[in-house]
Amino acid sequence: MKNSLLLCFLFISLFGYSQKKILQTKFISEKIEIDGKLDETIWQSAPIASDFVMLTPDNGKKIPENRRTEIRVLYDNDAVYIGALLYDESPDKILKEITQRDNFGTSDLFGVFINGFNDGQQDFQFFVNAADGQADCITTDSNGEDYSWDAVWKSKAVITDKGWVVEMRIPYAALRFSAENKQTWGLNFFREIRRDRQKYTWNFIDTKLGTFTQQTGILEGIENIKPPTRLFLLPYSSFYINASDKQKTKGTLKGGLDLKYGINDAFTLDMILVPDFGQTKYDDKVLVLGPFEQQFNENRPFFTEGTDLFSKGNLVYSRRIGGNPSIYPEINNDEEIIDNPASVNLINALKISGRTKEGLGVGILNAVTEKTKATIRNNNTQEVRNEVVEPLTNYNVLVLDQRFRKNSSITFVNTNVTRNGSYRDGNVSALVWDLNTKKNTYSLTGDFKYSFINDIENKKGVNSQLNFSETSGKFRYGIGADITTKDFDNNDLGINFETNYYSLYGNASYRILNSTKHFNSFSARFDTYSQFHKESGKIQSGNLNFQINANDKKNRSLSIGIDANPVETYDYYESQQADKYVILPAKIGGFIYISTNYNNRFAIDFNPSYAIFNESGRTTYGFDFGPRYRFNDKLSINYNFSFFRRNNNKGRIDSIDDDLNTNTPNTVIFANRNVITYANTFSGKYALNSQMSFNISLRHYWSYAENKNTLALQNNGRLTNFAGYTTNKNSSFYSWNADLSYSWWFAPGSQVSVLYRNNAGAFERNINKDFRNNVTNLLTNDALNHTFSISVRYFIDYNQVKNKF
After folding, report:
1. DSSP-derived pairing of the beta strands 582-584 and 519-533
2. What is the pLDDT of residue 14?
3. Could you give the CA distance from residue 287 to residue 734 in angstroms, rounded to a whole number?
4. Cβ pair 185, 213 in contact under 8 A
């Protein structure tokens, strides 16, 4: 008998959590009021989901009785309803900061994760915090959480004398599921007790495994419902007032329409007609001294929402669409450019995306930008002419992603850019694979990409990579290699900085899976990376990196890292001339990152770094310092000051022709320079409630490169003094951005936004080191550009309109 009990105990210990929990739901015909009270009698008869288990920091530990969590699920013909009782022995200690949508803030949190196909591929996640704020996202194991996805649903959170209560109504239009009469959904519930940084789930999620979406429970009992017509209209109207010293005050009225349509139970069409991105976040521009362009974040909602499929193979850099013109106008010696647009207008765009029950994901993205011209004036005749800097252009992306065994996929991706007329066209195709063992312990990932550029001279290239890694347990490792040929070019719709190389890399890591006496979490990781010039075999990069990350029992975070390039390397990019390289010295550096507990009203982030090169006087050092203060649940401010200095930095500044018999520059001029950067950012918010808030965002940036002496690049990659160059190539760039906004979600999915924005920026060759002047020079009427805008967007659900009539 004792042996039988022992075997039973061992079986439960080893395998009990591997079984999925099952929750039954009930059909209702009465109306549920989403008020956070759960006072309808039907709630009391619904089965309860309880016995939550800790996700972090003590993975697998049961939730204590005084914090028990009880969840009930009901459904009708239009929606699924969630009722949650979240007990807490100290309701007065529940954290409840009011924030904007998709921002959890310093608050307790409850979430429900739903997979209508129960295939372990993709979860629709809906969160409510204790301040009654909403957040939602789409989650996959390969791409993590995508909070740019927004659904329209109702919720209410109320704090009581026993803890807090959440009531939710999630319409079927916000989900994806099959048309079968009897539904079986993947389901999990999530709770975070913020003051203790403890996270719990209903169905156990084993952190030893390399998957999240496949460890859900099951919801049964939903029958005879039909996927609704998913047709959503989002008409908008915006009014802009723009003013600057060079432009008279001008008002502009805009209007347009966004449309979402569910083609069937799996696929959705998204369209924007007459787009308006005037209220998107400003770009954090920096001084660019190297050979590569600055890469910007995508802030336009259409291009960030639901992009899981389009991110496969990392081929799409959506800022190309409606970005800078691809052609710089050619002018004669007696001409000047008087107007050269900084961006190209987007005419319209659409996306079709979804996944069949058999696991085939299909994504189609298409966008059209308008023909754009620069204006050029002849200084002698005053005659004005126009030159095309971007023809009418079509951007297209096609993705076919076949998933199998719930955790693996093979993907085909094609991107195509077609410009009207005899201009450059680009086409890139890729085969991408992500293969995982059944138990998610090992993975084999990689891709093969082929590019074809149709230009004056056709160009073909290849990029490929292969990676093998262990993805479970305390100890993990990975190895990989990639190769890129000289003519690989995906920059028409993607972004790629380096070509003509092959590389080898590997990593090893250790992490704790449960908390210890001193740490809630702890991990250590070692990485090595080596890159070689494909034709000569010279080493372009040789990097060793070791990093430790920890979170202690008081929820303070600490990271320590050492980064080393122990050998000289050959940089083939800085010279910006084919087959010319500059030799870079060995270096070693490190950093420390300290972050105090954000649960406290006052918290600080501090991140100093330092590196020394194997070259006399060449060092880099800097720090980030970021205090934040939460006055109360409505008002908070964040500030960050960043300083970084590079002493005796070497970089290309020009190319000159020493041979009068040729027109080809044959001497590359470098500068020995000091580069200093300052950045100040400030943000704050005052939330009246979870639907209405005021926000402020300020940024001042100043960076300058002061050349001490000039150098000439030799054929052997060394730099020698070059005294004959006298042109001023110092660089100083400073900018100012300020946004003051008001946001009101006056109805589900409907928003009024009011924004005042001013900005200024300047690039100069003469460096003024008076920091105060570099601030005040931007804050004048001569320098500032002003924008005031009001935008109203109204969400229309076809089903609600249909029901009213």
Report:
1. unpaired
2. 36
3. 8
4. no
Strand duo 731-747 + 750-764: pairing: antiparallel
Q: Which residues of the chain have pLDDT under 50?
A: 1-17, 660-661
Cis peptide before 57 (omega within 30 of 0): yes
Which of 699, 548, 683 is closest to 627 using CA atoms?
A: 683
**Per residue in 677-708, pLDDT tens?**
999 999 999 999 999 999 999 999 999 999 99
Instruction: Give the model's pLDDT for residue 664.
Output: 55
- b/e for 242-256, b at 16 or more Cβ within 10 A? bbbeeeeeeeeeeeb
Q: Which residues, including other chains, have CB under 8 Å from residue 471's CB and lie 6 or more apart?
A: 210, 436, 440, 441, 442, 443
Q: Is residue 499 classed exposed, middle or buried when 0-12, 13-18 and 19+ CB atoms within 10 A define those classes?
A: middle
Residues in contact with 650: Cβ distance below 8 Å, sequence separation at least 6, in sequence order: 582, 670, 671, 672, 673, 711, 719
Residue 185 in contact with residue 100, Cβ under 8 Å? no
Q: Is 801 helix (H, G, I), strand (E, B) or coil?
A: helix
Q: Give residue for tokens 């400073």.
A: 734
pTM of the model: 0.90
Phi, psi of 455 (to 5 degrees): -140, -160
Q: What are the phi and psi torsion angles at 801 (to 5°)?
A: -65, -40
Tokens 């079709």 correspond to what residue? 352
Distance CA 21, CA 218 (A): 6
What tokens does 796 get? Answer: 């229309």
Q: What is the pLDDT of residue 15?
A: 38
CA dist list (Å): 406 to 435, 436, 489: 10, 9, 33
733 token code pair: 């760039």
**What local confidence, expressed as pLDDT, does residue 1 receive?**
39
Q: Dmax of the chain from CA atoms? A: 107
| Residue-level pLDDT at 665 | 63
Rounded to whole angstroms, how far apart are CA atoms 169 and 134? 12
Q: CA end-to-end span of the chain, whole Å?
A: 69
Handedness of CA 177, 182, 184, 190 (dihedral sign): positive
Which strand ranges, in their side-by-side order, compose the sheet holding 384-390? 335-339, 372-378, 384-390
Helix (H, G, I), strand (E, B) or coil at 798: helix
Percent of the chain with pLDDT over 70: 96
In 370-500, beta strands by DSSP E = 372-378, 384-390, 393-404, 408-419, 425-436, 442-454, 459-470, 475-484
Contact 620, 603 (CB under 8 A): no
Given this model, what pLDDT does residue 141 score? 80
Count helices and strands in the chain by DSSP H and E runs: 5, 45
DSSP string of 333-356, one letter each residue: TTEEEEE--SS--EEEEEEEEEE-
Consecutive H or E run containing 4: helix 2-15
Q: Tens of pLDDT along 164-192?
A: 999 999 999 899 888 889 999 999 999 99
**Which residues does residue 677 pair with via DSSP β-bridges, in sequence order?**
644, 703
Strand, helix or coil for residue 486:
coil
The confidence score (pLDDT) of residue 430 equals 98
Contact 693, 743 (CB under 8 A): yes
- Phi/psi class of residue 535: alpha, beta or left (left: φ > 0; alpha: ψ in -120 to 50)? alpha
Interval 631-688: pLDDT, tens? 999 999 999 999 999 999 999 999 987 654 455 567 999 999 999 999 999 999 999 9
566 phi/psi in degrees, rounded to 5: -75, -10
Only one residue has tokens 């169905």, namely: 203
Pairing relation of β-strands 569-571 and 582-584?
A: antiparallel
Pairwise CA distance, residues 491 & 495, whole Å: 5
